[in-house]
Design goal:
By secondary structure, the protein is of the alpha+beta class. The protein has two domains: 43 residues; 158 residues, Rieske Iron-sulfur Protein. The chain is built from three helices and 14 strands. The longest helix is centred in the N-terminal third of the chain and has 28 residues. It is elongated and about 90 Å long. It binds FE2/S2 (inorganic) cluster. The site of FE2/S2 (inorganic) cluster has 13 residues, from loops.
Length: 217
């Protein structure tokens, strides 16, 4: 019985039971720390690669549409690129009466999902506007809503211009005015444009442009 009473410390196979429990406890702590470190590394690694939706898309500036021309379609990034200039109005882009005194000039990356219930809308060349097939919302070239039920202008991604070495050109990151991304004029030394599809902001809730479009819902 005396031998049994001190069983916890009796040598068995070279180590005592107490030492064995210490080893198990130490191994558990080490495993926990390894898992924690692995999780930290996993969080720090970028989730999306360049050129994958959710990551950055770097495109040559030559892929930007002409001023006030039809939008460039980039299905992999789920955005349209547009290049607007309110000082050169045409059939595709002109300011509405309520935009007197404003200037809209530069490039926008517009999310391809309707702000109503999330359908994929499309540019309709015959009508010079985006039209949603689900419930009829319509948007101007720059994404401003023309007809409801869309609750707001189309959402936009942050963009930035890069030089020949792919370094950011200062002061070309999408400016935020009233918490909305604004157009960015193309700088003369731009070689690439970078669109960050992980940085999206909702479009402004401007008034409908039914007067501008000539047909109210
Ligand atoms: S989802 Fe586009 S109008 Fe309803």
């Amino acid at each position: 019985m005396a031998n049994a009473a001190i069983g916890a410390d009796v040598q068995s196979g070279g180590i005592s039971r107490r030492e064995f429990l210490y080893y198990i406890w130490g191994a558990s702590i080490a495993l926990y720390l390894a898992q924690f470190a692995g999780l930290m590394v996993w969080f720090l690694i970028p989730r999306f690669k360049e050129g994958e939706f959710g990551g950055k898309f770097v495109l040559p500036v030559g892929s930007i549409p002409d001023v006030n021309a039809e939008p460039g379609n980039f299905p992999d990034g789920r955005f349209w690129l547009v290049n607007v200039d309110s000082d050169q109005p045409n059939d595709l882009f002109a300011l509405a009466p309520d935009e007197t005194g404003q200037t809209l000039k530069g490039v926008l990356a517009i999310y391809k999902v309707c702000t109503h219930l999330g359908c994929i809308y499309a540019w309709t060349p015959a009508n010079n506007r985006y039209e949603c097939p689900c419930h009829g919302s319509k948007y101007r070239l720059d994404g401003r809503r023309i007809e409801s039920p869309a609750p707001r202008t189309l959402d936009r991604f942050q963009l930035e211009f890069l030089d020949a070495n792919r370094n950011p050109i200062p002061n070309t990151l999408s400016p935020e005015v009233d918490d909305f991304y604004q157009p960015v004029p193309v700088p003369s030394n731009a070689v690439f444009i970078s669109i960050d599809t992980s940085a999206k902001k909702t479009g402004p809730g401007d008034t409908l442009l039914c007067d501008f479009a000539g047909s109210c819902p």
